[in-house]
Amino acid sequence: MLVPLRGRVGLGQAGREAVLGPRELALYDSSRPFELRLAPGGESAALLRAHVPRALLDLPAGRLDGLLGTALDGRAGVGGLLTQFLAGTAAGSAAYSTGDLARLGTVALDLLRAVLAHHLDAEDAVPEDSHRRTLLLRIEAFVQRNLHEPQLSPAAIAAAHHISSSHLHRLFAGRDTTVAAWVRGQRLQRARRDLADPALGAVPVHHIAARWGFRDHSTFTRAFRGAYGMAPREYRRSYTPR
Question: Percent helix, strand, coil in the chain (nearest 5)?
């Protein structure tokens, strides 16, 4: 699989040819003849390549052949999740342990399966566990984009993903936390980061709380103290940038 990060990349295989722009993706079979052209327009280019054995994809091999050498959308939907995940993983690879890389590889494989199933209209062929992990990734990305919304509740999250609230809670059952507690923890992490940022030193604490979805300042203060052992203002005063 190819994912250009900058510039354009040309790929030809199976009688088809695609010119890929940034965050598009394409499949090719390295056991068959293929042609790869970097920056066909003469500009510079950078790309990611991921090699996955066909046997791990759990999808009809004959139907996969129809996708070889074609451009697939990697900027939106589940394709966007895959390209963002691969780009982020590659950028931070030096910080990952061997165990981290194995777990991240499992996530990447699940996302790739979901992308292929989407384009093959073969969702029933994707293993149920892959469906679950992919849905969780979509939910996590949705929450991160909407932490500033005070009305971001478990019911709102479930509705946005066309599932029931009980289904959402079952997805989080293995995490030893509730959906609401996880969302609150994400908000507190963002607020703590802002409080430690010298560039935001003049921003009132209650503005930072509101920025991350806390309607009530006293509620924010109690939650922050419970999570970090001190009030937000104390944290801001005691924090020394490294």
Answer: 55, 10, 30
